[in-house]
Structure formats: structure tokens, C-alpha cells
Design goal:
This protein has 96 residues and is mostly helical. 71% of the residues lie in helices and 0% in strands.
Amino acid sequence: MNPTPPTESPSLEDITAAGARRLRDADRLKKSSADLKELVLASLRAGTHKPTEVAKRSGWTGAHVRKMAREAGIEPDDRYKERADRLRKAQTGDPS
């Protein structure tokens, strides 16, 4: 559904204010994302919650959380390495 266009042309001040709000909101989004990333990585390092639950609660995909974890030097738990290796081999068609 498209919003009804204004009957008058917006003023330059309206455009300036909207641009300033967009920049302010973008800065807040960057900060909240950085704060969330810190919490997610701290939780993964502590190991107190399952990685799947951390990903689900963060609102990010599991793949994104795994990528962030690897970039932060957090390796998968030994319980998951064997499964990850099997999946990787199955995807590449490696029979060994």
C-alpha cells in the first residue's frame, strides 16, 4: 500500500530534517548492532547457552552468528566439529 502523496511540495527544511533523522537512525542501528554482537560473542565464549538459541534470540541467522564467531576466533565446540566435517564432505562429494 502506497502512502497518499502530500498535497503540497515538501520544503527544503522538511527534506533536511528527514535526512538528519535518517543519519541519526543509521548511527543508532550501527551502535545497537555492535552492542548485540558483543553480547552474542560473549555468550558464545562463555558457553552458557546453546549457539542455536543465541542465534535465534539475536535475530540473526545461524550462518551470520557462526561467521562472526569464526572471525572473532571462536571455534566450534568439539561436539560439532565431527558433524561439520561430515556435512562438508557430503557437500563436496568427498568419499573419505
